[in-house]
Amino acid sequence: MDSPFVLVNLKTYQEGMGSNAHRIAAAAEIVAKESGAVIGIAPAFTELHPMSHHYAIPVYAQHIDAITPGAHTGHILPEAVRSAGARGTLINHSERRLTLADIGACVESARRLHLETVVCTNNDATSAAAAALRPDYVAIEPPELIGSGVSVSKADPGIIERSVNAVRAVNPDVNVLTGAGIQSGECVKIAVDLGTCGVLLASSVVKADDPEAVLRDLVSLL
Ligand SMILES: O=C(CO)COP(=O)(O)O
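Above: inputs. Below: predicted complex with 1,3-dihydroxyacetonephosphate.
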């Protein structure tokens, strides 16, 4: 398998803003280098350019809108995150849901701009629907476990397995990530052993006193 992928979503946690985004990006860069894992971060839009400018790790947007340049006040263009240095983007995170039509349009415009696409889903049926849109990744995150401190790997490994099977049946070229409550190397290992290529996570790293130690633990069993 390719290097495992750990994507840290900074959301709007206060701890993840400004210089703390630097703190997490710096920790991610160190742990990625020593472990060989790919560790990316998804900071606030306003931090995309500083993060992509200062660090070698891949940087992702948390969202894009299904729009083209023009009159769309308060929206975010795929072109804007690309020019801010994003490698890719989350689409349809549980905290930023889109219609299926808009998810499709976002995947299309991201592909055209060579942005990697991580389409988030909430169950195996939506994972199958997302896979049909041919994103780079489908990220299965049961909403009830997000931010709960209870790991999907331990509480509901079946949803990971069913999503991996659903995605493979539709399009075996689409990679699967899993997330919700991921906090240790053991959680990551279970997810990878179930056929995913890595994890999408937030609070265990963003709220940590020592994000470098948490990241080191996350990749320790791979
Ligand atoms: O929503 C998530 C990542 O996008 C998961 O969040 P937690 O890791 O805080 O559960």
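The chain has ten helices and eight strands.
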